[in-house]
Amino acid sequence: MEITRKNFQESLEKVEAAVKEASFLAIDGEFTGLNHAGLTHTAIFDTPEERYHKVIQGSCDFMLIQFGLCAFSYDGNTKKYTAKPFNFYIFPRPFSRAAPDVRFTCQSSSMDFLMSQGFDFNKWIRDGITYLRPADEARLKEQVVKKHEVFASPAFISPSGGSHPGGISKGPVDIPPEQKDFVDDIFKKVEKFLESGEHDTLSLPPCTGFQRKLTYQSLQGKYGGELYLQSKTGENKERFIVVTKIKGEDEMKKIEDSKQAQDLAEVDAAVGFTQVIKMISQSGKLVVGHNMMLDIAHTINQFMYTLPKDYEEFKSMCRCVFPRLIDTKLMSNTQPFKDRIDNSGLSFLHHLTQLPPFVKPEVEISEDCDNKYKDSQSLHEAGYDAYITGQCFIALSNFLGQFQQPPSDRVPPSSPLLEPFLNKIFMMRSADIPYMDLVAADLAPSRDHVFHVTFPKDWKHSDISLLFAQFGSVHIGWIDEVSAYVALNSKCVANSVLKTLCKKGSVYRIMSYNDHKTYIRHEHSSQYKWTNQKSEQQSHGHSQFHTPTQTTAPPSGHHLHDGHSAEVKKGMKRSHSPENNGTLSDSGKKKAKSLNVDAPEFQSRITPTSTPEKDESIKWPEDINSSGKKIVILKRPEEINEGPKESKGKYNGKKTFHGRRNLEGMKNFNKNNKNKTHDGKKKSWYKGKKNGDEKKDEKIEKPEFTIKEEDFPPLA
User: Fold this and answer.
1) Pairing mode, if any, of strands 287-289 and 24-31?
2) Bridge-partner residues for 27, per DSSP?
3) How many Å separate Cα 619 from the centre of its chain?
């Protein structure tokens, strides 16, 4: 059912009834944009808090312009669901001069995409439903009350206002010469209106704001309590004054009271679509969405409260507005669904959940609603997307029924089988934290195998892979064009990366993930610290060491790839170089830097922290706790290919890199010296050949994580 401002008020009761009767609710939204240019895009090693801050920085200036709501009610007699889909157009039209005049941003690609899907932008602007946040509603109502208190006071309406407490004496109005003819014409019209007695009101011609002010002052000064003046706005947004005859101050007060009630009703009407969000929130019903982080953030920010800067406050706010949430994107990327669903996009998921091993849910659209979604697809129309999201949720939920004893072909929204997915929002493109937990503490997997790398602007994916080739395949998460996070698939060799790759004079910089995050938390207060190797060796016999807390690298490589800093040029070295990787003991010997490479790994797409109450009838499938099961958690760009872990070339521990590239400068070899290295020795291979054999192309394996028993805690 399509709802605009033309039929909103008459449809509101129908929406309220649907929400009250629903077993659960499904929502979806369409926006004017997704992310701002120049802001850091989402990275695979974002923490939930970092992802939240990127969301509020990069998306909250955009606007939710279409909201889809679908109420699903289960009939125990027919054993079918009845769906009531609603599609709302939202536009922040200011209803008065005091109302918020909203500014928002548009992203051309998003607008073009909506247009290609048939979005009616004329209808959105012309017929979109207004809205007010609760704080704006309260502020406007307070302004209305104060305004009418002033207008109804004797000090305002009486010509001798100065004689009343707090009143201001109303002397002759100073009329500019160029406005004298205008004011004289107003006096003539009003005098004629009073003498005729034919009408109770007189509408004066539209005029400027200054002329309206002169009209108010002149007529009140001359007629006082005989007239009531009110400004109004015409159909073409023109402003004019309406003059009404009154008899004394009592009638004036009655008119002001009536006008105050009218203005308050106007504010109530301007609350508009916010009423629907309040219905959903106050119902306490389960709210289902698909990849719903933006839907939730925009809905709260636009219709309820400004999103806070503090992440924990945001989580509390989510629980307040939407007490129970489930994300079907998270469900479909979690066991026992992950192995059965190869594409979790909404349209693909809707198709797959209608095929075995799932059972197509029996859903009928209510006769009270528009039936256009029954036989035709309207993808990326918010109402339709909410409708198919609800269908996906029913199919996924019912699939879990086979894991309880006795098996059931229907799992209701209140079932404990759904508790592991409750109040967790899916995190897109995350390597090891699949969701944002709104109730408990977020997952914090070990990232001792992850390193932050800065490098020249012209480096490619293959250059980074080649740098880490001796440590096996890696997973690269680009931050910007000069920095990235690199994760080793072989975590056991993580403690040797800094010792091996940190070399003085290199064009890249490497630091551990934890040190990089420490640097960010200290607001770039730390810098690389270098020591003069020659002078220290003379004075101590070995290098002076610095602790990691004293020496952290900048998070971005844009300071480095254009040339080394002044300290670098002096021949100084970093604290986490091989000679500096540790601290000094009392005896002067270097202590090995501890690195917890055996820390528990994040093992699967989801590790629920909230479990349902004890239920002996529930039994999970055996493959959930299978320690030998392997899954690929994230598909990477095309440049990442599956294949063996062979690397091109071999690092000999010195500055020379025997291979296709030179790590010291990463420059192409001169073809005139193609058979020699920098030390004049003959190369063992060239152009992909080594010892007469064809060298295999380097291919990078995708990361794998093992499902263990921690993935799903025992339900009993």
Assistant:
1) parallel
2) 69
3) 36
Region label for 541, one of left (φ > 0), alpha (ψ between -120 and 50) or beta (otherwise): left
Contact in structure between 511 and 576 (CB atoms under 8 Å): yes
Cα 286 to Cα 325: distance, rounded to the nearest angstrom: 6
Q: CA–CA separation, 312 vs 293, rounded Å? A: 15
> Looking up tokens 């004054």, which residue turns up?
241
Sign of CA dihedral 71, 72, 74, 80: positive
Rounding to the nearest 10 degrees, give the CA dihedral for residues 565, 569, 570, 571: 110
Name the 3-class secondary structure at 3: strand
How much is the pTM? 0.69
Local structure of 488: helix, strand or coil: strand
Q: Reduce the DSSP state of residue 60 to 3 states and report it.
A: coil
- Tracing tokens 């010291």 back to the chain, one arrives at 664
For 454-489, what is each residue's pLDDT tens digit? 999 999 999 999 999 999 999 999 988 899 999 999
pLDDT tens by residue, 386-419: 999 999 999 999 999 998 888 899 999 999 999 9
DSSP state of 618: B
Residue 480: HSE in the Cβ half-sphere, 13 Å Cα cutoff? 12
- Quote the radius of gyration of the chain (alpha carbons, Å): 35
553 token code pair:
């690298």
Distance CA 399, CA 249 (A): 73
Residues 84-117 as b or e (16 or more Cβ within 10 Å = b): bbbbbbbbbbebeeebbeeeeeebeebbeebeee
Q: Nearest Cα to 288, choosing from 471, 461, 455, 413?
A: 413
Q: Which residue has the tokens 């944002």?
A: 436
- Specify whether the CB–CB gap between 327 and 365 falls below 8 A: no
Rounded Cα–Cα distance for residues 403 and 308 (Å): 40
pLDDT digits (tens, 9 = 90+) for 239-286: 888 888 887 677 777 877 888 888 888 899 999 999 999 999 999 999
Give the CA angle between residues 477, 555, 516 to the nearest 5°. 85
- Contact criterion met (CB below 8 Å) for 337 and 399: yes
Which residues, other chains included, contact 259 with Cβ-Cβ below 8 Å and sequence gap of 6+?
A: 148, 230
CB under 8 Å to 143, separation ≥6 — which residues?
98
Distances (CA, A) of 312 to 420, 437, 445: 21, 11, 19
pLDDT of residue 246: 80
- Of all helices (H) and strands (E), which one includes residue 658? strand 657-658
Query: Can you count the helices (H) and strands (E) in the chain?
Result: 20, 27
Q: Are 293 and 426 in contact (CB under 8 A)?
A: yes
Q: What confidence tens digit (pLDDT) does each residue in 337-360 have? A: 999 999 999 999 999 999 999 999
Place of tokens 């709260």: 300
Report the alpha-carbon distance of residue 159 to residue 220 in Å, rounded.
7
Contact 324, 362 (CB under 8 A): no
Q: Cα–Cα distances in Å, from 190 out to 36, 205, 244?
A: 56, 12, 10
Residues 704, 709, 712: CA angle, nearest 5 degrees: 95
- For 200, other C-beta atoms within 10 Å of its C-beta total 10
Mean pLDDT of the chain: 76
